[in-house]
Amino acid sequence: MSIADNLLKYKSELDNTEAELIAVSKYQEPDAIMEAYNAGQRVFGENIVQELVDKQALLPQDIEWHLIGHLQTNKVKYIAPFIKLIHSVDSLKLLIEINKQALKNKRVIDCLLQIYIADEDTKFGLGFDEAIELLRSEEFATLKNVRIVGLMGIASNNAPEKQTLDEFTELKVLFDGIKVSFFRKDDYFKEVSMGMSGDYKLAIEAGSTMVRVGSSIFGKRKIKHYKTE
Ligand SMILES: *Cc1c(COP(=O)(O)O)cnc(C)c1O
Fold it and tell me: Residue 102 C-alpha to ligand 1 middle, in angstroms?
């Protein structure tokens, strides 16, 4: 199936749900992204800052770029002028830097707190307590150029379905608790970014509002020259 066919399949599948499709284009050539763009897709997710910056310069300016991979503080400045949503905020220090760079660009940057839900120690993210501590901190209250619009999580790799569903459900429960405690009156706090090619159906069942799907739209990842951290 072509990229356009795959997108069509996701579109019809997601039509009756709350979930939006983030097309994860990491390691895909610009041509492949254009194929998706020409099929109507406008929201793309990338993992690596350099790759994202290169593609943003090259591709149509009405693309909404999301950063879904780990972000180092010293790289925030490269994406601050254009990034639509950062899914991977995992420390107050990083949020402070995003705020600073957003201010420089006279913007408010939307962010998700990445929450650690997997049963592995290789994944980035805040623990439940750490997320709440961040939101309670006096420093957080002073950050006017970032807006926390929800939470993001990555489930364990290759876990049994029941475990994956439990992990997503835990994230949704945390989201609901944080909503009531910190964002009761804030309509913008509404996103739960969870689900990838292998587990998006379970994520939607648990209440995902953004699924991040890459390989089952684009096929194998092709570009190799960008280094992960
Ligand atoms: C690569 C990646 C995805 C997409 O994964 P696929 O299995 O290709 O759908 C989603 N989220 C994050 C954080 C990723 O790094």
Answer: 26
- Nearest-atom index, ligand 1, CA of 152: 13
CB of 112 closer than 6 angstroms to any ligand 1 atom: no
Task: Say how many domains are in the chain.
Answer: 1
Which residue puts its alpha carbon closest to atom 6 of ligand 1? 214
CA atoms within 13 A on the CB side of 110: 15
Check if the beta carbon of residue 142 is closer than 8 Å to that of residue 179.
Answer: no
pTM, two decimal places? 0.96
pLDDT in 10s for each residue of the chain, 229 residues: 899 999 999 999 999 999 999 999 999 999 999 999 999 999 999 999 999 999 999 999 999 999 999 999 999 999 999 999 999 999 999 999 999 999 999 999 999 999 999 987 766 899 999 999 999 999 999 999 999 999 999 999 999 999 999 999 999 999 999 999 999 999 999 999 999 999 999 999 999 999 999 999 999 877 776 766 5
CA 216 / ligand 1 centre spacing (Å): 10
Residue 228 within any structural domain of the chain = no
CATH number at residue 186: 3.20.20.10
Domain contains 224: no
Q: What is the 3-state secondary structure (H, E, C) of 99-156?
A: HHHHHHCCCCEEEEEEECCCCCCCCCCECHHHHHHHHHCHHHHCCCCEEEEEEEECCC
Question: Considering the domain boundaries, does residue 226 fall inside one?
Answer: no
**What separation in Å is there between the alpha carbon of 213 and the centre of ligand 1?**
6
